[in-house]
Amino acid sequence: MTRTRIPLSVLDRSRTRRGRPPGEALRDTVRFAREAEALGYRRFWVSEHHSVPGVAGSAPTVLASAVAAATSRIRVGTGGVMLPNHRPMLVAEQFGVLESLFPGRIDLGVGRSVGFTDGIRRALGVGKEAVGEFEERLGELVGWFDGGVAAYPQVHARPAEGLRVPLFVLANDAGADIAARAGAALVIGGLRGEDRLVEAVERYRKAFRPSAGRAEPYVVLAGDIAVAATEEDARRLLVPEAWALAYSRTHGVFPPLEPAGEIEGRAMSDRERGHFETALRGPVYGTEEQVARRLSTLVERTGADEVLVTTSGDDRVALLDSYRRLAAMAGPADDT
User: Treating both helix axes as pointing N-terminal to C-terminal, what angle do 195-207 and 175-182 enclose, rounded to 10 degrees?
Assistant: First the structure.
């Protein structure tokens, strides 16, 4: 079997499926974490979304706790906590609790997105301008772990203070600079190796400042990967998520996943079809041989240290088979 030697991890968004309750999606996430651990994946992360019909994961630290309690070896974290939505001290306290309960297994992944609509942002008490405060909040978050923040004398984030929880910054090409200045690992989307992605990774490595938590740059590439017996089977696994993305772009609502067969027989508007086909061009998919070649090329071009697999699908059996095939192609996980 063709193998790819890059370590693999999982980001699960707790995607809902049409006609099924959100609680089922959350229980599926916990069950999937146990399966990912058995398959040898390095990390299992959960995400933060608010008021999204197609995503049940709205409280990542709560869900991460359930995942960590249900597993024993795999690293558990967030991809990520959206820092503009939270006070940094509260985030530090939450991860201090997680690290204290599950020592040596917790990752802190943070992002800078805010709510999808004005209504969600108002409900969360944040505005679009909060994105511009991300780097300041990130510095404060690190400060709570390091021993306190000058603006709040005699205030301590317990039990976080003094703990070392690996910090990951979810970023686009511009956010790579923030990750570098923070001395954090970089998580960046894009598995096709576009020039802008490669340039952002190179810029991150050159600008990286060693920190108490990380001495050297570390790059995680995130994206959808599907592996199946045939290229067409792998593509079909990606159809439900591609349609959900197309629907969100054209209707303003991110829906639950639907079966691929129904979507492929559906009449789409030209605009919907355009977004749908664009969404299917982003992932890496195919047989083991095809995916291994594409990942090898990607790693060679970017020098990535790890790949975070974000694939969702309506067919859970086919989805797990894809993750199983992919794991069999990779080397053993470690605790980097």
Answer: 20
Q: Is the pTM of this model over 0.70?
A: yes
CA atoms of 170 and 11, how far apart (whole Å): 12
Whether 252 is in a domain gets the answer no
Does the residue 204 lie in any domain? yes
Cα first-last separation, the chain:
26
Rg (CA), the chain: 19
| Residues 273-321 pLDDT 10s | 999 999 999 899 999 999 999 999 888 989 999 999 999 999 999 999 9
Contacts of 3 (CB under 8 A, 6+ apart): 292, 329, 330, 331
Look at the chain and report how many structural domains it folds into. 1
Longest alpha-carbon distance in the chain: 63
- Residues 88-143: pLDDT tens digits? 999 999 999 999 999 999 999 999 988 778 888 899 888 888 888 999 999 999 99
Q: What is the CATH number of the domain that holds 144?
A: 3.20.20.30
Structure-token pair, residue 180: 């570098």
> In sequence order, what DSSP letters do the residues of 183-206 get, joined into one string?
T-EEEEE-SS--HHHHHHHHHHHH
131 lies in which domain range? 8-232+285-329
Provide CB contacts within 8 A for 253, sequence distance 6+: 53, 247
Instruction: Tell me the pLDDT tens digit for each residue of 217-270.
Output: 999 999 999 999 999 999 999 999 999 999 999 998 999 999 999 999 899 999
Q: Within 51-190, where are the H helices?
A: 60-70, 88-101, 118-124, 134-146, 175-182
Whether 96 is in a domain gets the answer yes
